[in-house]
Write a sequence for this structure.
């Protein structure tokens, strides 16, 4: 007998799927992990129940549960610890395929509007990172809709965007320059080439400040509410550290200070 089953909504009109994971035993740690994930956002779990060794989950993200099914089965049988299961489901599956301040609300709204969403590049497994010559970003390409009217999204970008628009929105430096060129109001900002630049421009800025990388997303490397130079130095080091975690293009490595 198969260990996993996906049941789409009635007449394929519902964006919520019923996922059945067989061979599951009652376990406090199992319920603990399910409750944790359910608390993240309603897109992950609408409801779940365990009957006759079958875990049934109502979710708009069937891929998440297909990839995690064996982990939940092992957790329920105490073949792995709660920590091991949590690390795999959160850090390997959710973080790489779904978890993003842009991806989650985009998919959630698409489902509310009745659009089908499917993974575009990889339906099974996790595509490895740049160290192995690939890139985790490929795990988060989703096709919204189907047929001629569909579009592909990744974070906040879409195949409906122009190339220029995509390049500008990815680079905070380019975004700010364009806003200035259009004559629109924007908080004072500068690029910090080195940490010493903080001393040179400190008195020109109203506090509190923000220091952040120009080319990272999801709040990575961002420090807010900076009121003194010591905090600014630490924020610069933190932003720099985040830009060096993996191979990046030079435009992603700039660090910005802004009111």
């Amino acid at each position: 007998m198969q260990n996993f089953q996906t049941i789409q909504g009635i007449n394929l009109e519902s964006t919520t799927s019923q996922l059945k994971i067989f061979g599951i035993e009652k376990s406090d740690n199992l319920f603990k992990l399910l409750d944790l994930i359910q608390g993240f956002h309603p897109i992950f779990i609408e409801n779940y129940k365990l009957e006759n060794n079958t875990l049934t989950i109502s979710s708009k993200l069937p891929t998440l549960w297909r990839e995690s099914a064996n982990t939940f089965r092992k957790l329920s049988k105490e073949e792995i610890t709660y920590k091991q299961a949590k690390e795999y489901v959160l850090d390997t599956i959710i973080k790489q395929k779904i978890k993003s301040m842009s991806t989650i609300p985009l998919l959630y709204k698409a489902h509310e509007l009745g659009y089908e969403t499917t993974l575009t590049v990889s339906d099974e497994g996790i595509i490895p990172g740049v160290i192995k010559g690939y890139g985790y970003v490929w795990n988060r390409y989703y096709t919204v809709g189907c047929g001629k009217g569909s579009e592909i999204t990744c974070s906040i970008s879409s195949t409906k965007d122009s190339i220029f628009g995509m390049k500008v929105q990815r680079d905070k430096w380019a975004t700010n320059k364009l806003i200035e060129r259009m004559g629109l109001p924007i908080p004072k900002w500068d690029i910090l080439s080195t940490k010493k630049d903080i001393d040179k421009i400190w008195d020109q800025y109203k506090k509190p400040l923000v220091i952040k990388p120009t080319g990272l997303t999801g709040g990575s490397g961002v420090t807010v509410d900076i009121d003194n130079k010591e905090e600014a130095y630490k924020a610069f080091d933190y932003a720099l550290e985040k830009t060096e975690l993996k191979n990046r293009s030079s435009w992603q490595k700039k660090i910005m200070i802004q009111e």
